[in-house]
Task: inverse folding
């Protein structure tokens, strides 16, 4: 069907009269402006049945995107992560990864293909030439921009083509669910795990270097010893997770030098045990000044006074190091008398 077969009133209106215009070069303007080529109507512009077919094709693509997104979610939940499949000619692949990649790829491709097909067949394709203007446009240019925007929105047929509009909104609403489902791989919610460590009543203090339980006689005055809970081994699967919370530094002070009453009560013969994890960003503390009883975090120079409840005396740390209440068991080994009373490390709990 050609434009000659359609009544003049059914043809889309042209925008402007410059199509095909050719200016003549003169002394002031030595280069001729060929103008824009004559606009040719598409079949969808002149045949509503063709426009309907394009509308259904776009809606089908958006619908396929929605189905692919649902397939992504179902695959993520239903397919075991250790299941393999053979895909020719690639070979053996993870069934879950293959399904997730395929369904997410189809979902995104169908949205893009639907948008392109919509733009190429149903939206206006009339070329419009406009003059450049300054960034700070005058009121008449602003009015023209608003008018052009309204005209473009009208020609997009978004309001008239409800099937396209509804399926597009459905596809765009479902696709983000793919990303939401992936949050499941971040693991189970931590609950109160960050607020507790392996330390418990009766848990012996084990020297990190010798891997042997500590006796009070093993800790000399002015020395710094690092300890871990009894039963925690470097070969354990969760060793790094547990030691990041339970790492302990042990210092022996003269009881008369301990200024904080609770620190003295929670010590044993001047032996005090504090968390090794800095309360700024969680760096391990390892620098000890014997004369001042200060420990220094090497990351950002937060300084704590171990003779005064490990309070912060310098640096960005927000609060004192947690202290572990210790004593000795029946065999004379140092043991914990409970867990830390507050979580170790950065002060996230103060904001929660």
Result:
């Amino acid at each position: 069907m050609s434009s000659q077969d359609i009544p003049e009133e059914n043809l889309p209106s042209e925008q402007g009269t410059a199509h095909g215009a050719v200016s003549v070069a003169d002394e002031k303007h030595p280069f001729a402006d060929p103008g824009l080529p004559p606009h040719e109507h598409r079949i969808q512009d002149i045949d509503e049945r063709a426009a309907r077919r394009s509308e259904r094709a776009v809606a089908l693509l958006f619908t396929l995107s929605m189905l692919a997104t649902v397939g992504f979610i179902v695959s993520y939940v239903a397919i075991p992560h250790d299941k393999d499949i053979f895909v020719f000619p690639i070979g053996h692949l993870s069934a879950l990864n293959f399904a997730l990649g395929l369904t997410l790829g189809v979902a995104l491709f169908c949205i893009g293909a639907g948008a392109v097909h919509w733009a190429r067949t149903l939206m206006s394709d009339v070329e419009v030439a406009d003059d450049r203007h300054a960034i700070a446009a005058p009121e008449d240019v602003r009015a023209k921009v608003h008018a052009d925007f309204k005209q473009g929105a009208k020609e997009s047929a978004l309001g008239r083509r409800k099937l396209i509009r509804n399926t597009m909104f459905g596809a765009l609403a479902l696709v983000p669910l793919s990303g939401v489902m992936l949050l499941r791989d971040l693991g189970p919610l931590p609950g109160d795990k960050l607020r507790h460590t392996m330390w418990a009543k009766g848990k012996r203090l084990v020297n990190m270097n010798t891997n042997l339980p500590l006796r009070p006689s093993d800790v000399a005055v002015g020395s710094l010893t690092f300890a871990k809970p009894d039963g925690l081994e470097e070969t354990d699967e969760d060793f790094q997770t547990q030691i990041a919370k339970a790492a302990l530094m042990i210092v022996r002070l003269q009881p008369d030098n301990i200024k904080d009453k609770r620190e003295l009560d929670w010590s044993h013969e001047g032996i005090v045990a504090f968390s090794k994890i800095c309360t700024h960003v969680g760096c391990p503390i390892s620098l000890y000044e014997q004369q001042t009883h200060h420990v220094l975090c090497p990351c950002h120079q937060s300084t704590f006074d171990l003779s005064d409840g490990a309070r912060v005396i310098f640096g960005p740390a927000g609060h004192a190091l947690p202290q572990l209440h210790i004593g000795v068991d029946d065999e004379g080994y140092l043991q914990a008398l409970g867990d830390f009373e507050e979580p170790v490390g950065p002060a996230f709990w103060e904001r929660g």
Q: What stands out?
A: The longest strand covers residues 224-229.
